[in-house]
Amino acid sequence: MEFLLLIIIPMLLGLWAQMKVKSAYGRYSRVASRGNVTGREAAAAVMEAAGINDVEIVQTPGTLTDHYDPSKKRLALSEGNYRGTSLAALGVAAHEAGHAIQHKVGYSMLNLRMALVPITMFSSKLLPFVILGGFFFQMMGAIWLGVGVYMVLTVFQMITLPVEFDASKRAKEELIDLNIVQSDEMEGVRKTLDAAAWTYVAAFIASLGNLLYLLSILSRNR
Fold first, then answer.
1. In 120-152, which positions are buried (b, 16+ CB within 10 angstroms) versus exposed (e)?
2. One of 96, 164, 174, 185 is an active-site residue; which one?
3. So what's the pLDDT on residue 222?
């Protein structure tokens, strides 16, 4: 029962979230904005309005590979969003520009997430040992290691939630304020960004579920 509640259900939620964002993005990436502004232009306009002129905007391979790298002050947009003029492209581009604004103003949760990146990356590299030794063979050493790893990942995912929600909020406001998107076009932007938000919620729940499951194994073996 614990495995179902803490592992399987969060896993299914994650799959649903991925399907939701792909569906919303796929739908609104085919809806062109009336202003004919590209994602790159939208990101540049949002950052310029915030007084940011030292962030490089580059194109990156793949689909939905968009991200903002605060260490390099680089905003990367996937090809479809870099050149595209769709509502989805504008929403994603403005969202990433929202992270650049967070960086400029010293948004505390972004700073905290940046500080946790090294230990989070190290913890992620230990996951194969945790999954094999902890979940499959229930080796006590691997279970204790897993508790530590998933504590780090869960805290990181929890901090990611307000960072992503805040970036989306900034994106929606700036797209309207700068007249890049008209109010009657915002539904496509909102649905794209709201669907993407579910992937972060699902990631947090999945990480928390794994942590609680490993703790339950430890409790049973005491």
1. beebeeebeebeebbbeeebeebbebbbebbbb
2. 96
3. 66
